[in-house]
Structure formats: C-alpha cells, structure tokens
Amino acid sequence: MLCSRILVAYDGSELGNKALKTAIELAKANEKIEMDVLHVVEVPVLYGEFLVAEPNLRETALKYGKETLEQIKDTLDAIPNKTRTFIGEGQPAQTILDHAQANDCDLIVMGSRGLGAFKELFLGSVSHNVAQQSPVPVFIVK
Ligand code: ATP
Ligand code: MG
C-alpha cells in the first residue's frame, strides 16, 4: 500500500479542490486508506504589520473555516474510505506538518498554489514550506 493515512491540506481554492480529488483517486486504490482533510484558519489574522487577535474576528474566521469544510462533506461521504475533517488554527504550513506528525499521516496532498493573489512563483508559501520540511512524501497538484 502506497500509504495508510492521507492528509489533504484544503484551503477551498481551485487547486485545493484538485488536490482533494487527487487524494480521493489515490484512496480508491484501497478502502483501508484513511483520509484526513485539514483546513487551517490563520488566527490571529495579520493585517499589514498588525496582528489582530480580536475575539469576534476569531469566531468569524472559524465560522468561514467550518463552512469551507461543510462544502466538501458530500464528496467525502461518497467514498467508502474512513474520512475525517479538521479545523486548525495558526500558521498553515506548521499546522499541516504538526497534524501529519500527530496523526501518523504518511502522505500529504496539496495544491501548488492556493487562494493567494500573487501568481508569479511556481509554489505558494504554504506548499513551499510543507514540501521543504515534511518528513513524509508530499504530492503537489498543479
Ligand atoms: P500564498 O499563500 O503564499 O500567497 P498561495 O495561496 O497561492 O500563496 P499556498 O497558500 O501555498 O499558495 O497554497 C498551496 C496549497 O496549500 C493549497 O492548494 C492548499 O492545498 C494548501 N493550503 C494553503 N493554505 C491552506 C490552509 N489555510 N489550510 C489548509 N491548506 C492550505
Ligand atoms: Mg495561500
């Protein structure tokens, strides 16, 4: 078996959705492969140089985060594999790496780019940092 638990880093972007579809294709190889989908909300939120940790902002960010995961519920329910969804808080790359380690995920699937507006670079900062620091294989979808 290529892997036993896949971690999908999901940000709701087009490539995030493509990463999810790819992970599902991989999981179809064996019903025993489990899948974790993690969406990280950046709290405190960074506005320019200011860190904002206002309680309402956190609640709002988490609410949108939950809605983002809600949108893929049917897609996950449609496969026979065991799936779980998680909301993380903090820096996305570190939170993704920590989740993979704490939950014994042996493959991370993510997009090359995400929601960021700046598309000059081949990799976004999250996929760059995860690919560079992960001890387990990282499948980057483009
Ligand atoms: P940047 O964020 O550096 O401006 P970007 O948004 O284009 O660039 P990334 O954020 O690196 O690119 O996104 C690449 C992939 O990382 C996404 O397709 C998704 O799989 C994952 N990812 C990014 N942000 C998050 C997040 N908040 N939670 C979970 N996964 C994420
Ligand atoms: Mg991004």
UniProtKB/TrEMBL annotation:
Domain of life: Bacteria
UspA domain ranges (all copies): 5-142
TM spans (from-to): none
SUPFAM superfamilies registered for this protein in UniProt: Adenine nucleotide alpha hydrolases-like
Stated family: Belongs to the universal stress protein A family.
Protein name, per record: Nucleotide-binding universal stress UspA family protein
